[in-house]
Design goal:
The chain has two helices and four strands. It is α+β, with helices and mostly antiparallel strands. It has one domain. The chain has a four-stranded mixed β-sheet, with helices on one face. The longest helix is centred in the C-terminal third of the chain and has 26 residues. It is elongated and about 45 Å long. 9% of the residues are buried.
Length: 98
């Protein structure tokens, strides 16, 4: 299993949790309520998951509210990704190269 980096990007306008995949970054805006954008990110993660199992680890040095929210979010996300990966494996839906 690969461990990928997640970071928090803080600006005056918004705060974003950036999930750094191998080929692209996916962003979840923490300061806005946009469930469809979160769903879109999750769907993209599912497509990546078919290529191989991974999880995220937060790399951030500022322990503010966004840090604690992100830690919990990543914990839940990693749990979901692991569960879904096992289901993909059980149903032989993985795209892994032999």
């Amino acid at each position: 299993m690969e461990t990928l980096k997640a970071i928090i990007l803080r600006t005056d306008d918004k705060t974003v949790l950036s999930l750094n995949l191998v080929e692209k970054n996916l962003e979840i805006v923490l300061t806005e309520d946009k469930p469809n954008e979160v769903k879109n990110v999750f769907n993209q993660l599912l497509l990546e998951l078919k290529k191989g199992e991974f999880n995220f680890e937060l790399e951030d040095s500022i322990e503010d509210l966004y840090y604690h929210i992100s830690i919990e979010y990543i914990s839940q996300l990693n749990s979901e990704l692991s569960s879904i990966y096992k289901e993909l494996e059980d149903y032989e839906l993985l795209d892994e190269e032999e």
